[in-house]
Amino acid sequence: MSAGEPAAVAAARAALGTPVVAEACGPYQLLTDAAGPLLGGLRELCAGPVTAFESEYRHRFGVAPSEPPAGTLVLFAERRRFQRYVAADPRLPRVAAGFSLALDGLVALPAGERPLAEVAGTLIHELAHLAHRRTFGSPLEPWLSEGLADELGYSAGPDGFASPAGFTGMEGLRTRLRGGYATGRAGPLARLVALPRSSFDRDPVSWDYDQAALFVRFLLLDPELAPRFRAWLAARAAGGTPPPLTAGLGLDEEALESRFRRWLDGPARGGS
Q: What is the mean pLDDT of the segment spanning 49-63?
């Protein structure tokens, strides 16, 4: 069990209520002020998806982190304490669901007042961001970073991971994105892939997260594109200069867009 950057961990710990439980959570350190059934639920997550995370990441994406997992998970029993913690430090992301600081090896999120399955999804999403840094080194484009993290997060539950199948776990995202396309307000994949972090999910109404998550799910399920996508990820993890995504997939932008839209409008459990 390895902790994250000491000052960041100490600041997060100080924001928790008392008493603070400190124990192992898979390969990570858990700090929480949860008690009773909530603490039992968090321990269930530690024994389930958190412990299984490393092998699931390797199996699903075909890449493996080059360094062992390390970090601290700070899980708040009360949302208001988490919000006060975030508001008190201008360096922290202004988010409601939770965040990760990959350089500091820290994940923080409110765990109480929400279903355990939702906590599992958020926690796994944030652990994916820690794994991205250990796997790819340099920051990923936002669509790829968030799409990979969401694909894992929407597959996670208290007991572990469900294999990706059609739109399972992403039904709401699919409905929303199809509505965005129908009204002409959701842009094409070429726009999504080109977005810098400063522009990702910045519009008053945005489909960027929905589109990224579903695009990654599509790439993992398409029988022809899945091995090409994993090979493209592996080339990036190896530290070389991989080709543009469309070249790696062997499709131009128009063909890729058309194929994705057909999948999005197809059978609820369709693979391609």
A: 97
